[in-house]
Each structure stands twice: as C-alpha cells, then as structure tokens.
Amino acid sequence: MTGTLSHLLIATLAFVGGHFVMSSAPVRDPLVAKIGERGFTGVFSLVAAATIYWMVTAYSDASHIAYWEPPTAIKHLNLSFMIIATIFILAALTPKNPTMAGSGSNQLANGPRGIFRITRHPMMWGAALWGILHVLANGDLAALIFFGGFAVLAIFGTVLIDRRKARLYGEDWQAFAAKSSHIPFAAIIAKRTTFNAAEIGWLPVILGLALYFVLLILHETLFGIAPISWVSGLFD
User: Fold this and answer.
1) Can you tell me the distance from the alpha carbon of 212 to that of 151, in angstroms, rounded to the nearest whole number?
2) Which tens digits make up the pLDDT trace of 123-168?
3) Cα–chain-centroid distance for residue 44?
4) Do 88 and 125 touch, CB atoms closer than 8 A?
5) What's the CA gap between 91 and 191, in Å, rounded?
6) Against a cut of 0.85, is the pTM above it?
7) Beta carbons of 111 and 36 less than 8 angstroms apart
C-alpha cells in the first residue's frame, strides 16, 4: 500500500474508531457526567469534524489504484439506489426521530411512525447505502477505504445506538424496538407494524429527490466525477 493510501487508512480508522470509542458506555457516560450532554455533544462534534476533515483531505491526495472496472449496470444501479439513500436521509431529519441524539422517551410512546416503520435507523441506512454504492461505482482502493469507512460506521453505528437507547430507556425502548426493525422492511414483513405512506408524506420524498438531482448536476463541479454522463449512457 502506498504512503498516501496508508495515510487515508489511518485517517479513516481515526474517524470511524473515534465514533465507536466516544459512543461506548465506558467513555461516554463518565464524560456526560462531568461536562453534561451538551458539553459531550460539543466535544464529540469537534472530534468528528476534525477527523472527517483529515479523512477528506487524505482521500483527495490518495493514489488511484483500481481493483475493478465498474460495469455499466453497476453505475446505473448506483444512480437508481442513491434516490433511496437521499430520501431515507431527508426523511430522518425530523424532531420525531427516536434514535436522534438527545431524543427523549416521549418519542417512543406511540411506537414507530412514518419512515421509522420501515427501519428505526433511516439516516444510518441511507448513509450506508451511499457508502456501499460509491465503493461499487468507483472501483479503486482509495474509494474502498473512504466510502467503505462511512458504510461500516453507519451499519455498526446502529448497534451502538440501539444499545445506548436500551440502556437509557429500558422497557420503553424494548417496546418500541419490538414494533420496529433494524433491517429495513423486516418489521413490516414480520407484521410487527404496517407500512403507512401517508405518515411519511410527500415532503421528504420531494426533498430527497431535490437533493438527489442537485448532487447529480453538481457532482462533477464538486467532486470531479460526472455521474450525470451515465444517465445519457442509458439511451445510447
């Protein structure tokens, strides 16, 4: 592995590991007891911002070493499923998100609603899907490390969130979790809850689509890659 890729790997481990360490009970609980929830959130945000900046700069300097040439079908798959990722992420941005940092037990009382009937972690699954799709669509080691790091953090971060909520809210969380699911659509398939499109509403769908098209149009300007050209390839 080249030096630039090693640098990226270290930065990614710092970013992902920092989240896992600071979210763990042996580290988080004593810090919250000393500096309060807001103080901890501030420290956590600073660490996250510093490590993600390090990670992004390391990625921009990393060598391009291909491990496969993504076929056209994968690129089209990326375009299609990124719509789901952006909708999931936007739909999760609500004060009613029961897994959001700082949310209280009062948001658990009525069980999962809206997007949270599909999964209680829409934000994390949206981020995981974004990471996995970009790993597949780029096909080089730097992308595997960078985007793979986000995917790993998002997927395993859900486990940490579940553990923390269970520790904080006990039976209230257990009752909520029993009617929801970690894996998207699992609770609906198991008939522990039902799908309700009206609860989700049109707003997160419209905003998710808007974000998707903005990213699609500006992607080359912002990141140097033009996925919008893949769209024209559909009609060649």
Assistant:
1) 19
2) 999 999 999 999 998 889 999 999 999 999 999 999 999 998 888 8
3) 17
4) yes
5) 22
6) yes
7) no
